Amino acid sequence: MKLQSRLLSLAVLAALPALAQADDGARALDPILVTATRTPIALQDSIAPAQVIDRTQIESSQATSLQDLLRGRAGINLTNAGGLGKQSSLFLRGTNSGHTVVLVDGVRINSADLGLAMIQDLPLAQIERVEIVRGPQSSLYGADAIGGVIQIFTRRNQGDFAPHLQLGGGSNGLREASGGIGGSSERGWFGADIAYQHSDGIDACRGSATLFTGCFADEPDRDGYRNLSKSLRGGYNFNEQWTVEGSALRADGQNHYDGYYNFSETRQQVLSGKVRYTPAERLVLTASVGRSDNESDNVGADGVHGSAQTHRDSASLQGDFGVAEGQLLSAGVDWSEDNLDGSSAGYRVDSRRNTGVFVQYQGRFGRHQLQASARNDDNEQFGNHATGSIGWAMELDHGLRINASYGTAFKAPTFSDLYDPWSGVPTLDPEKSKSANLGISQQGQGWRWGLDVYETRIDDLITYDAATFRMQQVEKARIRGAELTGGVVLAGFDIAAQLSYTDPHNRTNGSSQFDNWLPRRAQQTARLDVDRRFGAFRAGLTVQGAGKRYDDAANTVKVGGYGTLDLRAEYALTPSWSLLARATNVFDRRYETVAWFNQPGREYQLSVRYQPK
Protein backbone atom coordinates (compact mmCIF):
# COMPACT_ATOMS: atom_id res chain seq x y z
CA MET A 1 0.00 0.00 0.00
CA LYS A 2 2.88 2.39 0.76
CA LEU A 3 4.34 1.69 -2.70
CA GLN A 4 0.94 2.29 -4.33
CA SER A 5 0.59 5.67 -2.57
CA ARG A 6 4.07 6.71 -3.69
CA LEU A 7 3.41 5.68 -7.28
CA LEU A 8 0.13 7.59 -7.24
CA SER A 9 1.83 10.74 -5.95
CA LEU A 10 4.55 10.41 -8.58
CA ALA A 11 1.92 10.02 -11.30
CA VAL A 12 0.28 13.27 -10.25
CA LEU A 13 3.56 15.14 -9.91
CA ALA A 14 4.73 13.85 -13.29
CA ALA A 15 1.77 15.54 -14.94
CA LEU A 16 2.56 18.99 -13.54
CA PRO A 17 5.80 19.80 -15.45
CA ALA A 18 3.83 19.36 -18.67
CA LEU A 19 2.09 22.64 -17.86
CA ALA A 20 4.96 24.55 -19.41
CA GLN A 21 4.49 22.62 -22.66
CA ALA A 22 0.78 23.32 -23.17
CA ASP A 23 -0.67 23.73 -26.63
CA ASP A 24 -0.46 27.40 -27.64
CA GLY A 25 -3.89 27.19 -29.24
CA ALA A 26 -5.67 25.99 -26.10
CA ARG A 27 -8.04 28.49 -24.50
CA ALA A 28 -8.13 28.92 -20.72
CA LEU A 29 -11.64 28.66 -19.36
CA ASP A 30 -12.84 31.18 -16.81
CA PRO A 31 -15.69 29.65 -14.74
CA ILE A 32 -17.89 31.77 -12.51
CA LEU A 33 -17.77 31.21 -8.73
CA VAL A 34 -20.47 32.40 -6.32
CA THR A 35 -19.73 30.64 -3.03
CA ALA A 36 -16.41 32.29 -2.10
CA THR A 37 -17.87 35.80 -1.77
CA ARG A 38 -21.68 35.28 -2.01
CA THR A 39 -21.39 37.31 -5.24
CA PRO A 40 -20.47 36.18 -8.79
CA ILE A 41 -16.73 36.41 -9.49
CA ALA A 42 -14.33 34.74 -11.91
CA LEU A 43 -12.82 31.59 -10.41
CA GLN A 44 -9.30 32.89 -11.02
CA ASP A 45 -10.14 36.01 -8.95
CA SER A 46 -11.02 34.02 -5.82
CA ILE A 47 -8.63 34.71 -2.95
CA ALA A 48 -9.87 31.62 -1.14
CA PRO A 49 -8.69 28.35 -2.76
CA ALA A 50 -11.64 27.08 -4.80
CA GLN A 51 -12.69 24.64 -7.49
CA VAL A 52 -15.70 24.40 -9.83
CA ILE A 53 -16.97 21.14 -11.32
CA ASP A 54 -19.52 21.81 -14.06
CA ARG A 55 -22.05 19.56 -15.78
CA THR A 56 -19.70 18.78 -18.65
CA GLN A 57 -17.09 17.47 -16.22
CA ILE A 58 -19.70 15.50 -14.29
CA GLU A 59 -20.87 13.75 -17.44
CA SER A 60 -17.38 13.09 -18.80
CA SER A 61 -16.30 11.55 -15.46
CA GLN A 62 -19.16 8.99 -15.65
CA ALA A 63 -19.21 9.02 -11.83
CA THR A 64 -22.14 7.19 -10.24
CA SER A 65 -22.26 9.21 -7.00
CA LEU A 66 -21.30 12.58 -5.56
CA GLN A 67 -18.62 11.05 -3.34
CA ASP A 68 -17.22 9.27 -6.41
CA LEU A 69 -17.00 12.66 -8.15
CA LEU A 70 -15.32 14.40 -5.16
CA ARG A 71 -12.92 11.67 -4.06
CA GLY A 72 -9.25 12.67 -4.27
CA ARG A 73 -9.86 16.33 -5.08
CA ALA A 74 -7.74 19.01 -3.41
CA GLY A 75 -8.19 19.13 0.35
CA ILE A 76 -10.86 16.40 0.45
CA ASN A 77 -10.68 13.22 2.52
CA LEU A 78 -13.65 10.88 2.03
CA THR A 79 -14.68 7.80 3.98
CA ASN A 80 -17.43 5.36 3.07
CA ALA A 81 -18.98 2.54 5.10
CA GLY A 82 -19.63 -0.14 2.52
CA GLY A 83 -20.26 1.04 -1.02
CA LEU A 84 -22.92 2.91 -2.98
CA GLY A 85 -25.42 4.76 -0.78
CA LYS A 86 -23.71 3.91 2.50
CA GLN A 87 -22.76 6.54 5.07
CA SER A 88 -20.06 8.80 3.63
CA SER A 89 -18.16 11.46 5.56
CA LEU A 90 -16.19 14.31 4.02
CA PHE A 91 -13.22 15.86 5.86
CA LEU A 92 -12.19 19.14 4.22
CA ARG A 93 -8.63 20.27 4.99
CA GLY A 94 -8.39 17.81 7.87
CA THR A 95 -11.30 19.26 9.84
CA ASN A 96 -14.23 17.24 11.17
CA SER A 97 -16.93 15.95 8.84
CA GLY A 98 -19.35 18.46 10.42
CA HIS A 99 -16.99 21.37 9.74
CA THR A 100 -18.02 21.80 6.10
CA VAL A 101 -21.18 23.70 5.25
CA VAL A 102 -22.98 22.00 2.35
CA LEU A 103 -25.52 24.04 0.42
CA VAL A 104 -28.01 23.06 -2.27
CA ASP A 105 -29.11 26.12 -4.26
CA GLY A 106 -28.10 28.29 -1.31
CA VAL A 107 -29.92 26.21 1.33
CA ARG A 108 -27.88 24.51 4.06
CA ILE A 109 -28.53 20.75 4.14
CA ASN A 110 -26.32 19.72 7.07
CA SER A 111 -28.53 17.67 9.39
CA ALA A 112 -29.92 19.65 12.34
CA ASP A 113 -29.39 16.51 14.43
CA LEU A 114 -25.92 15.19 13.52
CA GLY A 115 -24.45 18.19 11.69
CA LEU A 116 -23.45 16.03 8.71
CA ALA A 117 -24.57 16.44 5.12
CA MET A 118 -25.94 13.17 3.73
CA ILE A 119 -23.98 13.50 0.49
CA GLN A 120 -24.45 9.81 -0.33
CA ASP A 121 -28.13 10.48 -1.07
CA LEU A 122 -27.63 13.47 -3.40
CA PRO A 123 -28.06 12.12 -6.97
CA LEU A 124 -25.56 13.31 -9.58
CA ALA A 125 -28.28 13.24 -12.23
CA GLN A 126 -29.86 16.28 -10.56
CA ILE A 127 -26.66 18.35 -10.24
CA GLU A 128 -25.55 21.10 -12.62
CA ARG A 129 -22.46 22.37 -10.84
CA VAL A 130 -20.42 21.89 -7.66
CA GLU A 131 -18.37 24.69 -6.08
CA ILE A 132 -15.75 23.84 -3.44
CA VAL A 133 -14.26 26.62 -1.32
CA ARG A 134 -11.47 25.56 1.03
CA GLY A 135 -10.67 27.35 4.28
CA PRO A 136 -12.74 29.13 6.96
CA GLN A 137 -15.93 30.80 5.74
CA SER A 138 -17.83 31.50 8.99
CA SER A 139 -17.55 35.26 8.41
CA LEU A 140 -19.93 34.75 5.44
CA TYR A 141 -21.86 31.60 6.33
CA GLY A 142 -21.82 31.41 10.12
CA ALA A 143 -21.41 28.28 12.22
CA ASP A 144 -19.80 25.07 10.93
CA ALA A 145 -17.72 26.56 8.08
CA ILE A 146 -14.35 25.78 9.73
CA GLY A 147 -13.05 23.64 6.86
CA GLY A 148 -14.93 25.36 4.06
CA VAL A 149 -18.14 25.37 2.03
CA ILE A 150 -19.39 23.10 -0.75
CA GLN A 151 -22.33 24.40 -2.78
CA ILE A 152 -24.34 22.21 -5.13
CA PHE A 153 -26.52 23.75 -7.83
CA THR A 154 -29.34 21.71 -9.30
CA ARG A 155 -29.63 21.46 -13.07
CA ARG A 156 -30.46 24.61 -15.02
CA ASN A 157 -31.30 24.11 -18.66
CA GLN A 158 -30.41 26.66 -21.32
CA GLY A 159 -31.53 27.02 -24.92
CA ASP A 160 -34.59 25.50 -26.55
CA PHE A 161 -36.83 23.22 -24.51
CA ALA A 162 -35.74 19.63 -25.07
CA PRO A 163 -35.79 16.27 -23.28
CA HIS A 164 -32.77 14.29 -22.12
CA LEU A 165 -32.39 10.79 -20.72
CA GLN A 166 -29.83 8.19 -19.71
CA LEU A 167 -30.18 4.44 -19.09
CA GLY A 168 -27.52 2.14 -17.76
CA GLY A 169 -26.55 -0.90 -15.74
CA GLY A 170 -23.52 -2.64 -14.39
CA SER A 171 -21.87 -4.87 -11.82
CA ASN A 172 -23.51 -5.78 -8.50
CA GLY A 173 -26.92 -5.41 -10.07
CA LEU A 174 -26.62 -1.70 -10.79
CA ARG A 175 -29.60 -0.20 -12.63
CA GLU A 176 -29.85 3.50 -13.43
CA ALA A 177 -32.39 5.61 -15.29
CA SER A 178 -32.71 9.37 -15.44
CA GLY A 179 -34.47 11.87 -17.62
CA GLY A 180 -36.07 15.24 -17.79
CA ILE A 181 -36.98 18.24 -19.84
CA GLY A 182 -35.93 21.84 -19.66
CA GLY A 183 -34.98 24.96 -21.48
CA SER A 184 -35.19 28.72 -21.49
CA SER A 185 -36.85 31.57 -23.32
CA GLU A 186 -35.94 35.23 -23.55
CA ARG A 187 -37.29 35.95 -20.06
CA GLY A 188 -37.62 32.66 -18.20
CA TRP A 189 -36.40 29.12 -17.73
CA PHE A 190 -37.85 25.87 -16.43
CA GLY A 191 -36.80 22.28 -15.89
CA ALA A 192 -37.98 19.00 -14.36
CA ASP A 193 -36.02 15.79 -13.78
CA ILE A 194 -36.45 12.35 -12.30
CA ALA A 195 -33.71 9.79 -11.58
CA TYR A 196 -33.63 6.22 -10.29
CA GLN A 197 -30.64 4.26 -9.05
CA HIS A 198 -30.68 0.71 -7.67
CA SER A 199 -27.80 -1.55 -6.69
CA ASP A 200 -27.79 -5.01 -5.10
CA GLY A 201 -24.65 -3.81 -3.31
CA ILE A 202 -21.75 -5.64 -1.74
CA ASP A 203 -21.24 -7.12 1.72
CA ALA A 204 -20.86 -3.81 3.53
CA CYS A 205 -19.07 -5.03 6.66
CA ARG A 206 -16.62 -7.82 7.42
CA GLY A 207 -17.18 -7.46 11.17
CA SER A 208 -17.51 -10.34 13.58
CA ALA A 209 -20.01 -10.70 16.41
CA THR A 210 -17.52 -12.97 18.19
CA LEU A 211 -14.74 -10.37 18.12
CA PHE A 212 -17.19 -7.54 18.86
CA THR A 213 -15.48 -5.47 16.20
CA GLY A 214 -16.51 -3.48 13.15
CA CYS A 215 -20.30 -3.39 12.88
CA PHE A 216 -20.73 -5.89 15.77
CA ALA A 217 -22.24 -8.46 13.43
CA ASP A 218 -21.28 -11.27 11.08
CA GLU A 219 -23.72 -10.98 8.19
CA PRO A 220 -22.09 -12.05 4.90
CA ASP A 221 -24.81 -10.85 2.56
CA ARG A 222 -25.36 -8.18 -0.07
CA ASP A 223 -26.40 -4.78 1.28
CA GLY A 224 -28.35 -3.04 -1.45
CA TYR A 225 -29.33 0.57 -2.06
CA ARG A 226 -32.11 2.34 -3.94
CA ASN A 227 -32.65 6.05 -4.61
CA LEU A 228 -35.52 7.80 -6.37
CA SER A 229 -35.11 11.55 -6.84
CA LYS A 230 -37.15 14.33 -8.40
CA SER A 231 -36.42 17.99 -9.02
CA LEU A 232 -38.19 21.08 -10.32
CA ARG A 233 -36.68 24.51 -10.96
CA GLY A 234 -37.60 27.66 -12.76
CA GLY A 235 -37.14 31.40 -12.93
CA TYR A 236 -38.50 34.50 -14.63
CA ASN A 237 -37.13 37.94 -15.42
CA PHE A 238 -40.08 40.36 -15.23
CA ASN A 239 -37.90 43.25 -16.36
CA GLU A 240 -34.38 44.59 -15.83
CA GLN A 241 -35.14 45.15 -12.15
CA TRP A 242 -37.08 42.12 -10.90
CA THR A 243 -36.13 38.43 -11.11
CA VAL A 244 -37.62 35.45 -9.27
CA GLU A 245 -36.47 31.85 -9.19
CA GLY A 246 -37.11 28.69 -7.21
CA SER A 247 -36.14 25.04 -6.99
CA ALA A 248 -37.20 21.84 -5.27
CA LEU A 249 -35.24 18.60 -4.84
CA ARG A 250 -36.41 15.43 -3.14
CA ALA A 251 -34.49 12.16 -2.80
CA ASP A 252 -36.00 9.02 -1.24
CA GLY A 253 -33.63 6.19 -0.38
CA GLN A 254 -33.74 2.62 0.88
CA ASN A 255 -30.60 1.10 2.33
CA HIS A 256 -29.50 -2.26 3.74
CA TYR A 257 -26.74 -2.53 6.35
CA ASP A 258 -24.88 -4.96 8.58
CA GLY A 259 -25.00 -4.45 12.33
CA TYR A 260 -27.34 -2.84 14.83
CA TYR A 261 -29.62 -1.58 12.05
CA ASN A 262 -30.23 -3.70 8.97
CA PHE A 263 -32.52 -1.49 6.90
CA SER A 264 -33.39 2.18 6.62
CA GLU A 265 -35.64 4.46 4.63
CA THR A 266 -34.42 8.03 4.18
CA ARG A 267 -35.76 11.24 2.71
CA GLN A 268 -33.86 14.40 1.89
CA GLN A 269 -35.76 17.42 0.61
CA VAL A 270 -34.63 20.96 -0.24
CA LEU A 271 -36.86 23.89 -1.19
CA SER A 272 -35.51 27.30 -2.17
CA GLY A 273 -36.88 30.60 -3.46
CA LYS A 274 -35.18 33.84 -4.37
CA VAL A 275 -36.20 37.35 -5.42
CA ARG A 276 -33.63 39.76 -6.84
CA TYR A 277 -34.30 43.50 -7.15
CA THR A 278 -31.93 45.85 -8.98
CA PRO A 279 -33.17 49.42 -8.41
CA ALA A 280 -29.96 51.02 -9.68
CA GLU A 281 -26.91 50.08 -11.71
CA ARG A 282 -24.72 49.67 -8.63
CA LEU A 283 -27.26 48.23 -6.20
CA VAL A 284 -28.65 44.69 -6.01
CA LEU A 285 -30.98 43.45 -3.26
CA THR A 286 -31.59 39.72 -2.87
CA ALA A 287 -34.12 38.04 -0.59
CA SER A 288 -34.17 34.25 -0.28
CA VAL A 289 -36.00 31.61 1.73
CA GLY A 290 -35.34 27.91 2.10
CA ARG A 291 -36.20 24.73 3.91
CA SER A 292 -34.28 21.48 4.21
CA ASP A 293 -35.73 18.23 5.61
CA ASN A 294 -33.92 15.08 6.68
CA GLU A 295 -35.83 11.97 7.67
CA SER A 296 -34.70 8.45 8.50
CA ASP A 297 -36.51 5.36 9.72
CA ASN A 298 -34.19 2.52 10.76
CA VAL A 299 -35.04 -1.11 11.51
CA GLY A 300 -32.82 -3.75 13.07
CA ALA A 301 -33.06 -7.34 14.17
CA ASP A 302 -35.36 -8.39 17.03
CA GLY A 303 -37.62 -5.38 16.64
CA VAL A 304 -34.91 -2.72 17.05
CA HIS A 305 -36.23 0.57 15.68
CA GLY A 306 -34.92 4.13 15.47
CA SER A 307 -36.06 7.25 13.69
CA ALA A 308 -35.25 10.92 13.27
CA GLN A 309 -36.99 13.76 11.45
CA THR A 310 -35.39 17.19 11.34
CA HIS A 311 -35.94 20.35 9.37
CA ARG A 312 -34.33 23.74 9.04
CA ASP A 313 -36.15 26.88 7.92
CA SER A 314 -33.99 29.76 6.71
CA ALA A 315 -34.26 33.25 5.28
CA SER A 316 -31.69 35.76 4.08
CA LEU A 317 -31.55 39.34 2.91
CA GLN A 318 -28.42 40.65 1.17
CA GLY A 319 -27.54 43.97 -0.40
CA ASP A 320 -24.59 44.48 -2.76
CA PHE A 321 -23.48 48.08 -3.28
CA GLY A 322 -20.96 49.18 -5.89
CA VAL A 323 -19.29 51.96 -3.91
CA ALA A 324 -16.77 52.74 -6.69
CA GLU A 325 -15.24 51.21 -9.80
CA GLY A 326 -13.83 47.82 -8.81
CA GLN A 327 -15.15 48.05 -5.24
CA LEU A 328 -18.16 46.20 -3.82
CA LEU A 329 -19.69 46.37 -0.36
CA SER A 330 -22.07 43.59 0.69
CA ALA A 331 -24.14 43.40 3.85
CA GLY A 332 -26.88 41.09 4.98
CA VAL A 333 -28.71 39.13 7.62
CA ASP A 334 -29.28 35.36 7.78
CA TRP A 335 -31.92 33.70 9.96
CA SER A 336 -32.44 30.00 10.58
CA GLU A 337 -34.33 27.72 12.91
CA ASP A 338 -33.42 24.07 13.47
CA ASN A 339 -36.13 21.66 14.62
CA LEU A 340 -36.24 17.99 15.56
CA ASP A 341 -39.74 16.99 14.54
CA GLY A 342 -39.32 13.56 16.05
CA SER A 343 -36.52 11.35 17.31
CA SER A 344 -36.46 7.98 19.00
CA ALA A 345 -33.52 9.32 21.07
CA GLY A 346 -35.77 11.76 22.95
CA TYR A 347 -33.47 14.81 23.17
CA ARG A 348 -33.96 17.33 25.99
CA VAL A 349 -33.76 20.27 23.55
CA ASP A 350 -35.28 19.97 20.09
CA SER A 351 -35.10 23.43 18.50
CA ARG A 352 -32.92 26.54 18.32
CA ARG A 353 -32.65 29.73 16.31
CA ASN A 354 -29.68 31.60 14.92
CA THR A 355 -29.44 35.10 13.49
CA GLY A 356 -26.29 36.24 11.73
CA VAL A 357 -25.38 39.70 10.49
CA PHE A 358 -22.44 40.13 8.10
CA VAL A 359 -20.59 42.74 6.06
CA GLN A 360 -18.00 42.21 3.31
CA TYR A 361 -15.76 44.47 1.26
CA GLN A 362 -14.16 43.53 -2.06
CA GLY A 363 -11.78 45.90 -3.80
CA ARG A 364 -9.34 45.89 -6.69
CA PHE A 365 -6.50 48.42 -6.92
CA GLY A 366 -4.36 47.90 -9.98
CA ARG A 367 -2.63 44.57 -9.45
CA HIS A 368 -3.86 44.26 -5.87
CA GLN A 369 -7.06 42.66 -4.67
CA LEU A 370 -8.55 42.86 -1.16
CA GLN A 371 -11.39 41.01 0.54
CA ALA A 372 -12.46 41.54 4.17
CA SER A 373 -15.55 40.30 6.00
CA ALA A 374 -16.96 40.23 9.52
CA ARG A 375 -19.98 38.55 11.04
CA ASN A 376 -21.79 38.13 14.34
CA ASP A 377 -24.03 35.12 15.00
CA ASP A 378 -26.56 35.17 17.83
CA ASN A 379 -27.22 31.52 18.68
CA GLU A 380 -30.20 30.86 20.92
CA GLN A 381 -28.25 28.27 22.95
CA PHE A 382 -24.70 29.61 22.89
CA GLY A 383 -25.01 33.37 22.57
CA ASN A 384 -22.99 35.67 20.33
CA HIS A 385 -19.99 34.59 18.27
CA ALA A 386 -17.99 37.02 16.15
CA THR A 387 -15.88 35.83 13.20
CA GLY A 388 -13.86 37.59 10.55
CA SER A 389 -11.53 37.11 7.64
CA ILE A 390 -9.16 39.14 5.50
CA GLY A 391 -7.54 38.21 2.22
CA TRP A 392 -5.11 39.82 -0.20
CA ALA A 393 -3.88 38.87 -3.66
CA MET A 394 -1.42 40.39 -6.10
CA GLU A 395 -0.97 39.73 -9.80
CA LEU A 396 2.62 39.47 -11.00
CA ASP A 397 4.12 39.16 -14.47
CA HIS A 398 3.78 36.04 -16.66
CA GLY A 399 0.35 35.14 -15.20
CA LEU A 400 1.69 34.62 -11.68
CA ARG A 401 -0.49 35.46 -8.70
CA ILE A 402 0.16 35.31 -4.95
CA ASN A 403 -2.42 35.38 -2.18
CA ALA A 404 -2.62 35.37 1.61
CA SER A 405 -5.61 35.10 3.92
CA TYR A 406 -6.52 34.70 7.58
CA GLY A 407 -9.88 33.81 9.09
CA THR A 408 -11.68 32.68 12.20
CA ALA A 409 -14.62 30.29 12.46
CA PHE A 410 -16.76 28.44 14.98
CA LYS A 411 -19.15 25.52 15.31
CA ALA A 412 -21.96 25.06 17.81
CA PRO A 413 -22.35 21.50 19.17
CA THR A 414 -25.13 19.55 17.48
CA PHE A 415 -28.19 18.18 19.25
CA SER A 416 -26.63 14.73 19.02
CA ASP A 417 -23.32 15.94 20.51
CA LEU A 418 -25.19 17.36 23.47
CA TYR A 419 -28.17 15.14 24.14
CA ASP A 420 -27.75 11.73 22.55
CA PRO A 421 -28.62 9.34 25.43
CA TRP A 422 -25.71 7.03 24.62
CA SER A 423 -22.91 9.44 23.70
CA GLY A 424 -24.04 13.03 24.33
CA VAL A 425 -22.38 15.44 26.77
CA PRO A 426 -24.61 18.47 27.61
CA THR A 427 -21.66 20.58 28.85
CA LEU A 428 -19.86 20.76 25.49
CA ASP A 429 -18.73 24.23 24.37
CA PRO A 430 -18.65 25.63 20.82
CA GLU A 431 -15.53 24.89 18.78
CA LYS A 432 -13.38 27.84 17.66
CA SER A 433 -10.69 28.02 14.97
CA LYS A 434 -8.04 30.27 13.46
CA SER A 435 -6.66 29.60 9.98
CA ALA A 436 -4.02 31.10 7.69
CA ASN A 437 -3.40 30.37 4.00
CA LEU A 438 -0.56 31.31 1.61
CA GLY A 439 -0.80 30.56 -2.08
CA ILE A 440 0.87 31.02 -5.44
CA SER A 441 -0.63 30.20 -8.82
CA GLN A 442 -0.06 30.73 -12.51
CA GLN A 443 -2.40 30.59 -15.46
CA GLY A 444 -1.54 30.66 -19.13
CA GLN A 445 -3.13 29.85 -22.46
CA GLY A 446 -4.65 26.44 -21.78
CA TRP A 447 -2.73 25.62 -18.60
CA ARG A 448 -2.70 26.44 -14.91
CA TRP A 449 -1.12 25.38 -11.63
CA GLY A 450 -1.46 26.41 -8.00
CA LEU A 451 0.09 25.69 -4.61
CA ASP A 452 -1.54 26.53 -1.28
CA VAL A 453 -0.17 25.93 2.21
CA TYR A 454 -2.26 26.42 5.33
CA GLU A 455 -2.48 25.97 9.08
CA THR A 456 -5.65 25.66 11.16
CA ARG A 457 -5.77 25.66 14.96
CA ILE A 458 -8.97 24.50 16.63
CA ASP A 459 -9.84 24.94 20.31
CA ASP A 460 -12.34 22.63 22.02
CA LEU A 461 -12.56 20.25 19.06
CA ILE A 462 -15.45 17.80 19.55
CA THR A 463 -14.64 14.15 18.83
CA TYR A 464 -15.95 10.72 19.75
CA ASP A 465 -14.01 8.77 22.39
CA ALA A 466 -14.25 5.05 21.59
CA ALA A 467 -12.89 4.19 25.04
CA THR A 468 -15.80 5.83 26.89
CA PHE A 469 -18.40 5.66 24.06
CA ARG A 470 -19.08 9.37 24.61
CA MET A 471 -18.27 12.66 22.94
CA GLN A 472 -15.20 14.46 24.23
CA GLN A 473 -13.62 17.89 23.78
CA VAL A 474 -10.02 18.04 22.56
CA GLU A 475 -8.50 21.16 24.09
CA LYS A 476 -6.31 21.94 21.08
CA ALA A 477 -5.88 20.54 17.58
CA ARG A 478 -3.50 21.68 14.85
CA ILE A 479 -3.82 20.94 11.16
CA ARG A 480 -1.13 21.81 8.64
CA GLY A 481 -1.33 21.05 4.97
CA ALA A 482 -0.52 21.79 1.36
CA GLU A 483 -2.42 21.40 -1.91
CA LEU A 484 -0.86 21.25 -5.36
CA THR A 485 -3.21 21.43 -8.34
CA GLY A 486 -2.68 21.73 -12.06
CA GLY A 487 -4.36 21.40 -15.41
CA VAL A 488 -3.25 21.46 -19.04
CA VAL A 489 -4.47 20.70 -22.55
CA LEU A 490 -1.48 18.96 -24.13
CA ALA A 491 -1.51 17.40 -27.61
CA GLY A 492 -5.28 17.05 -27.35
CA PHE A 493 -5.14 15.45 -23.90
CA ASP A 494 -7.05 17.20 -21.10
CA ILE A 495 -4.99 16.56 -17.94
CA ALA A 496 -5.93 17.57 -14.38
CA ALA A 497 -3.83 16.68 -11.33
CA GLN A 498 -4.44 17.23 -7.61
CA LEU A 499 -2.18 16.30 -4.71
CA SER A 500 -2.92 17.08 -1.06
CA TYR A 501 -0.96 16.67 2.15
CA THR A 502 -2.75 17.01 5.49
CA ASP A 503 -1.14 16.75 8.93
CA PRO A 504 -3.98 16.75 11.53
CA HIS A 505 -2.85 16.34 15.14
CA ASN A 506 -4.20 16.46 18.67
CA ARG A 507 -2.02 19.08 20.42
CA THR A 508 -3.52 18.96 23.91
CA ASN A 509 -0.63 19.04 26.40
CA GLY A 510 -0.86 16.37 29.06
CA SER A 511 -3.35 14.28 27.09
CA SER A 512 -2.68 10.57 26.50
CA GLN A 513 -3.51 11.29 22.86
CA PHE A 514 -1.06 14.18 22.48
CA ASP A 515 0.31 14.37 18.91
CA ASN A 516 -1.99 11.58 17.71
CA TRP A 517 -3.52 11.87 14.24
CA LEU A 518 -7.13 12.99 14.23
CA PRO A 519 -9.14 9.91 13.20
CA ARG A 520 -10.11 8.93 9.65
CA ARG A 521 -7.94 11.54 7.88
CA ALA A 522 -5.31 10.31 5.45
CA GLN A 523 -2.16 12.42 5.24
CA GLN A 524 -1.90 12.09 1.46
CA THR A 525 -4.64 12.11 -1.16
CA ALA A 526 -4.23 12.45 -4.91
CA ARG A 527 -6.18 12.36 -8.13
CA LEU A 528 -5.14 12.38 -11.79
CA ASP A 529 -7.70 12.71 -14.61
CA VAL A 530 -6.72 12.31 -18.27
CA ASP A 531 -9.20 12.60 -21.14
CA ARG A 532 -8.81 12.64 -24.92
CA ARG A 533 -11.27 12.97 -27.78
CA PHE A 534 -10.69 11.20 -31.11
CA GLY A 535 -13.49 12.41 -33.38
CA ALA A 536 -16.69 10.73 -32.19
CA PHE A 537 -14.77 8.67 -29.60
CA ARG A 538 -13.64 9.90 -26.19
CA ALA A 539 -11.53 8.00 -23.67
CA GLY A 540 -10.27 8.79 -20.21
CA LEU A 541 -8.82 7.50 -16.98
CA THR A 542 -8.76 8.47 -13.31
CA VAL A 543 -6.04 7.44 -10.90
CA GLN A 544 -6.85 8.28 -7.30
CA GLY A 545 -6.02 7.14 -3.82
CA ALA A 546 -4.98 7.96 -0.29
CA GLY A 547 -2.31 7.14 2.26
CA LYS A 548 -2.83 5.38 5.57
CA ARG A 549 -5.11 6.73 8.31
CA TYR A 550 -6.18 5.76 11.82
CA ASP A 551 -9.77 4.82 12.53
CA ASP A 552 -9.74 5.90 16.18
CA ALA A 553 -8.51 8.82 18.28
CA ALA A 554 -6.12 6.53 20.18
CA ASN A 555 -4.41 5.58 16.87
CA THR A 556 -4.60 1.87 17.63
CA VAL A 557 -6.62 0.85 14.54
CA LYS A 558 -4.73 1.49 11.32
CA VAL A 559 -6.40 1.62 7.88
CA GLY A 560 -3.94 1.10 5.04
CA GLY A 561 -3.50 3.36 2.03
CA TYR A 562 -4.71 2.47 -1.44
CA GLY A 563 -4.65 3.47 -5.08
CA THR A 564 -7.15 2.66 -7.84
CA LEU A 565 -7.43 3.05 -11.60
CA ASP A 566 -10.69 3.76 -13.42
CA LEU A 567 -11.14 3.69 -17.21
CA ARG A 568 -13.94 5.20 -19.27
CA ALA A 569 -14.96 5.52 -22.90
CA GLU A 570 -17.69 7.34 -24.78
CA TYR A 571 -18.80 7.04 -28.40
CA ALA A 572 -21.17 9.49 -30.14
CA LEU A 573 -23.49 7.32 -32.21
CA THR A 574 -25.22 10.48 -33.49
CA PRO A 575 -25.02 14.12 -32.41
CA SER A 576 -27.67 13.34 -29.78
CA TRP A 577 -27.04 9.70 -28.81
CA SER A 578 -23.93 8.45 -27.01
CA LEU A 579 -22.78 5.07 -25.73
CA LEU A 580 -20.76 5.09 -22.48
CA ALA A 581 -18.63 2.38 -20.86
CA ARG A 582 -16.71 2.42 -17.60
CA ALA A 583 -14.51 0.10 -15.54
CA THR A 584 -13.62 1.06 -11.96
CA ASN A 585 -10.95 -0.31 -9.64
CA VAL A 586 -9.51 -2.05 -12.68
CA PHE A 587 -6.88 -3.98 -10.70
CA ASP A 588 -9.52 -5.19 -8.21
CA ARG A 589 -7.73 -3.76 -5.17
CA ARG A 590 -9.12 -4.67 -1.75
CA TYR A 591 -9.16 -1.67 0.54
CA GLU A 592 -11.11 0.17 3.22
CA THR A 593 -11.62 3.81 4.16
CA VAL A 594 -13.37 2.90 7.43
CA ALA A 595 -12.04 -0.06 9.41
CA TRP A 596 -14.01 -3.28 8.81
CA PHE A 597 -16.17 -1.78 6.06
CA ASN A 598 -15.58 -3.10 2.54
CA GLN A 599 -15.20 -1.14 -0.68
CA PRO A 600 -16.28 -2.45 -4.10
CA GLY A 601 -13.81 -4.45 -6.16
CA ARG A 602 -13.63 -4.28 -9.95
CA GLU A 603 -16.91 -3.06 -11.46
CA TYR A 604 -18.21 -2.45 -14.99
CA GLN A 605 -20.91 -0.13 -16.26
CA LEU A 606 -22.57 0.44 -19.62
CA SER A 607 -24.96 3.32 -20.41
CA VAL A 608 -26.69 5.07 -23.27
CA ARG A 609 -27.39 8.82 -23.21
CA TYR A 610 -29.75 10.99 -25.25
CA GLN A 611 -28.98 14.70 -25.10
CA PRO A 612 -29.76 17.01 -28.02
CA LYS A 613 -26.94 19.41 -28.81
In short:
The chain has 613 residues and is mainly beta.
Give a structural overview.
This protein has helices at 2-15, 55-61, 66-70, 138-141, 415-419; strands spanning 32-33, 41-42, 50-54, 76-80, 88-92, 100-104, 107-108, 127-134, 148-154, 162-170, 174-184, 188-202, 223-237, 242-256, 263-280, 283-299, 305-324, 327-343, 351-365, 368-379, 383-395, 400-411, 431-444, 447-465, 470-490, 493-506, 524-534, 537-546, 549-550, 558-559, 562-572, 577-584, 603-610. It is mainly beta and 613 residues long. The protein has a 22-stranded antiparallel β-barrel. A five-stranded mixed β-sheet has the order 3-8-9-6-7. The protein starts with a helix and ends with a strand. The protein is 6% helix and 57% strand.
List the helices and strands and how they pair.
Blueprint lengths: L1 H14 L16 E2 L7 E2 L7 E5 H7 L4 H5 L5 E5 L7 E5 L7 E5 L2 E2 L18 E8 L3 H4 L6 E7 L7 E9 L3 E11 L3 E15 L20 E15 L4 E15 L6 E18 L2 E17 L5 E20 L2 E17 L7 E15 L2 E12 L3 E13 L4 E12 L3 H5 L11 E14 L2 E19 L4 E21 L2 E14 L17 E11 L2 E10 L2 E2 L7 E2 L2 E11 L4 E8 L18 E8 L3
Parallel strand pairs: 6-9
Antiparallel strand pairs: 1-2, 3-8, 4-5, 6-7, 8-9, 10-11, 10-33, 11-12, 12-13, 13-14, 14-15, 15-16, 16-17, 17-18, 18-19, 19-20, 20-21, 21-22, 22-23, 23-24, 24-25, 25-26, 26-27, 27-28, 28-31, 29-30, 31-32, 32-33
